Amino acid sequence: MSAAETLASSSSPTLAGRRVLVIEDEYFLADDITRALISFGAEVIGPIGEMEEASGIVERNQNIDAAVLDINVRSEMIFPIARALRSRDVPFVFTTGYDKSAIKPEFQDVPLWEKPLDIPDMARALSALILKRAH
Q1: Digit-coded pLDDT (tens) for 30-63
Q2: The pTM is what?
Q3: How does pLDDT run across 96-131, given as a tens digit for each residue?
Q4: Which domains are delineated in the chain?
Q5: Exposed, middle or buried by CB within 10 Å (0-12, 13-18, 19+), for 128?
Q6: Can you say whether residue 11 is alpha, beta or left, with left for phi > 0 and alpha for psi between -120 and 50 degrees?
Q7: Residue 130 CB contacts under 8 Å (≥ 6 apart), including other chains
């Protein structure tokens, strides 16, 4: 079982009142992720499909509880934003069409959700990360 699957095996997502940043450049997937997170009670920041806009939101917004990050956003890698979130202790998951080898070594511990996504399982994993951070 992968790290992502282990995190997802917890019960239903507890995202009520949580602000979740979604960075995803595929419109329909971004919409599906957003709808699912909202259905689990999250307040969604985004979805954002451009790196410059995403960077600005991360720099300005101090109230991000978690994030869903597409690894490749319009041919730019998400790692600078991942570093910024990590420096603020914001948990996140990666989504990608790539395999684990596309992840920089410093992020090998981050749950990776391969496309096509199991969005409810991803939401459970995100919930587990938030709860883990709170303890």
Answers
A1: 999 999 999 999 999 999 999 999 999 999 987 9
A2: 0.88
A3: 988 888 888 999 999 999 989 999 999 999 999 988
A4: 16-134 (3.40.50.2300)
A5: buried
A6: beta
A7: 14, 15, 18, 65, 66, 91
